Amino acid sequence: MIYPNEMSCDTCGKKVSELRRDLIDSSYNALNKPPLWNCQDCYREKKARRLKERDNT
Ligand SMILES: [Zn+2]
Question: From ligand 1's centre to the CA of 57, what distance in Å?
């Protein structure tokens, strides 16, 4: 069991007190994947990257 105050970011592995669930884009097929938890930095980075990818499509 992971305690809320000792969670590790699934992307960088950093231990942080607060994680954000990686469910940014509604088109993200979350049903087939386990939810990813990201620290603030990774969440922001992924969000920016995802927005950029969508713009390029
Ligand atoms: Zn991270």
Answer: 26
